[in-house]
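Researcher: Next entry in the queue.
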Amino acid sequence: MPDDQEPEEPATEETPGAEQPKGIMVSLAVILIAILILLIIFMNLSGPGTMAATTITENPWSLRSFTSQDGTITPVLNGTVITADFRTDGQLTGSGGCNQYSGRYMIQETRIVVSRVTTTGISCWDTNATLQEEQYYASLEDASELRVHDRVLTLYSPDGKPLLVYGPANSGD
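Model: Structure for this entry, 173 residues:
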């Protein structure tokens, strides 16, 4: 008879199961937060420009090659040493092969601006060394981009062509 039906029991057995999805969500949230923390720690969130600006000040640089006026990549003349020391205070100093030079530089992201370079007035021993030094100073002032990769610093022209390629000074590179 219809009055003999047993009343339905409340679903108390499902209550423990209701806790399980909540536990999974908490675990998932903890894992996502841990991943986010790892990303913040291990990724350079300040960008490659800050990294390049820091890297170029870590050691003085020695010029390996430069792009000559006719567009060919030319190694530094034997017997000449051209250096650049980018200091953290924005001062740039070094040797152009015959003369000492100084100037100021600024970096923003991967862009670089080098102010007018001033030099000492020593004459080079030959015309080729003089021409190389003049080309070096002009290239420094023309540089607009920089990249540091595998301990090589490259300064680029506004049209993206390499101007100056350096290695760390005093390292035998």
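Model: Residues 43-50 have pLDDT under 50 and may be disordered.
Researcher: Noted, moving on.
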